[in-house]
Amino acid sequence: MKIIAFLGNPGKKYNKNRHNAGFIIGKIFADNFNISVKKQNFQSEYGSGKIEGSEVLLIFPNTFMNNSGRAVSEAVNYYGIAVEDLIVVHDEIELPFGEIRIKSGGGHKGHNGIRSIIQHVGSSDFNRVRIGVGRPGNPEMEVADYLLSDFTDEELAGIKDSAPQVIQAIISIISRSL
Question: Which parts of 33-66 fold into alpha helices (H)?
Fold first, then answer.
């Protein structure tokens, strides 16, 4: 089994925030594979299905970004999966807008959601699909304010347009580890 955690902040207020790139892509991902994400457990909304012959659990933590590790570790521990079978999809300020990169292991680079997951699962050896949201255009703007600001309509369309790349990245991680 693989657990795919899409990171963001719960609630309508945050739906279009840059920090919710993981949630935005996750909803498209779930729809693409006809996986209903309506169940509640692991401090998350979740759903399960099969992709590339592998059982998958999609989780959307309800713990807010900075505490994502609590929800993710509950699911990892419940199913007893190896940390290498965890895939985390999240926004990345260090990547140019719309760029997608896969990473396995490593540090958190200041991302509090990733920091929380590393702390709670006790390892950084999980897979990550990083969605570039870029840095603020205004150097005076605080990073937190930037991440909690909404995408413009054009940017939101761009993030949604990157969904096929993210889906392919996740499939490649699943296939590589089968």
Answer: none
Query: Closest Cα to residue 6, out of 19, 18, 23?
Result: 23
- Amino acid 94 reads E
Mean residue pLDDT of the chain comes to 95
CA 24 from chain centre, in angstroms, equals 9
Burial of residue 142 (CB within 10 Å: 0-12, 13-18, 19+) is: exposed
pLDDT at 176: 84
DSSP string, 86-148: EEEEEEETTS-TT-EEEEES---TT-HHHHHHHHHHT-S-SEEEEEE----SSTTS-HHHHHT
Q: In one letter, which amino acid is 107? A: G
pLDDT digits (tens, 9 = 90+) for 26-75: 999 999 999 999 999 999 999 999 998 999 999 999 999 999 999 999 99
pTM for the whole structure: 0.96
Query: How many H-runs (helices) and E-runs (strands) does the chain carry?
Result: 6, 7
Q: Give yes or no: 19 in active site.
A: yes
* Domain architecture of the chain: domains with CATH: 2-176 (3.40.50.1470)
